[in-house]
Amino acid sequence: AQSVSQHNHHVILSEAASLELGCNYSYGGTVNLFWYVQYPGQHLQLLLKYFSGDPLVKGIKGFEAEFIKSKFSFNLRKPSVQWSDTAEYFCAVNADSGNTPLVFGKGTRLSVIA
Amino acid sequence: SAVISQKPSRDICQRGTSLTIQCQVDSQVTMMFWYRQQPGQSLTLIATANQGSEATYESGFVIDKFPISRPNLTFSTLTVSNMSPEDSSIYLCSVDWFHGYTFGSGTRLTVV
Q1: Closest Cα partner for B38 from A5, A2, A104?
Q2: Where would a tag sit more exposed on chain A, N or C end, judged by fewer CB atoms within 10 A?
Q3: Residue contacts between A and B (CB atoms, under 8 Å)
């Protein structure tokens, strides 16, 4: 079965700082990888996803993530955060066999301060 | 992408009662997934609902507590039975739409 580890429980950054959130997964087969964001009081929104091809994936709102297969990692990055990026970020994985559920990490709360 | 309508959006229920949550998808999908998000926590898969067969439950979740119906390819319900305060959570349904997972807006359940 798959599992996902997000190393940072709570990250506090100043506006314009760079962001990197760690995500590692455990699974022996081919996986699909996702990052979701949940703004306060709102439902999940997909930031980006990786299935195959270029391991550097660009998503919405200036976010990107890099899949490093040898490290089983899919870290999320943003060069310059804004106050509006304050949210909970979830890494998720599923087995690449179609119609399988997502397995989520515990999430990282990002607080961006002015 | 597929659009999911989930209701109710929130409810406050007395302990010992049951609540049925509905999810309607605007397209036919094979699998629907039900998740729980407890306060301040991540999403935990409750079960996978496949049309025409019994739902498959994850460890720690049982059919008597969380019965699921899947009468057709666009609709599913999750019932939270004999509720206790520990069941207070957000419950979400999800579908895999061509590898773009879509989530319902969630049902915020408070058990008092």
Answers
A1: A104
A2: C
A3: 42
